[in-house]
Amino acid sequence: MRRVVVDPRAFVRQMIQAPKVIDLLDIVAGGNGLGHRRERGIDPSTAMEDPVFTPGSRIVGRDFHRATTYRQNVLDGVFSSDGSLGAVQLDSAGHTFVGFPKTENTSWGSIWARPAIVKPDERAKAAHQYVYFIDGSERFTPGGAACSVSLPK
């Protein structure tokens, strides 16, 4: 072995420009993360696009569902967290988790991106859709963003 003298400056990297902020709600709404799309979502039973909020229960199935092509660069897919049959596949690489609680294998509504502040006229148009009545408090909408997630029924 021999001692090597290294100049630490040789390992310094400088970023030419600041990294871009990725808007995850834009991705949920079908964008690439660099825009501000809202009012679109993902079907939790297929990972396909939901162009309108779809209230109601859906059987989500036990399989991992790969995201449609326009989201695949950032979003791998969706899965049901029903642990009644054991391991649940979490991603397309085949990673699994055992320990989710037993559910009825259903989900309610779309995985939806909406503005944090919903104007009264928009609420009136969607009076039957709970996603427009969720409080936009800072606790759930940091930075003024809002997204609903489908929860097991």
Q: How would you describe this structure to a colleague?
A:
Strand 6 and strand 7 (96-97) form a beta hairpin. The strands form 4 sheets. A 4-stranded antiparallel beta sheet has the order 2-1-9-10. The longest helix is centred in the last third of the chain and has 6 residues, at 120-125. Helix content is 7%, strand content 18%. It is mainly beta and 153 residues long. Mean pLDDT is 77; it is low at 146-153. The protein starts with 23 loop residues before the first helix and ends in a 5-residue tail after the last strand.
Topology:
Elements lengths: L23 H5 L11 E3 L6 E2 L6 E3 L5 E2 L10 E2 L9 E2 L6 E2 L8 E3 L2 E5 L4 H6 L19 E4 L5
Q: Please compute the radius of gyration using only Cα atoms.
A: 20 Å
Helix share, percent: under 10%
Tell me the fraction of residues in β-strands, as a range: 15-25%
First-last Cα distance: 64 Å
Helix/strand-derived class? mainly beta
Q: Summed up, what is this model?
A:
The chain has 153 residues and is mostly beta strands. 7% of the residues lie in helices and 18% in strands. The protein is built from two helices and ten strands, in the order H-E-E-E-E-E-E-E-E-E-H-E.
Main features:
four-stranded antiparallel β-sheet, two-stranded antiparallel ribbon, 153 residues, disordered C terminus, mainly beta
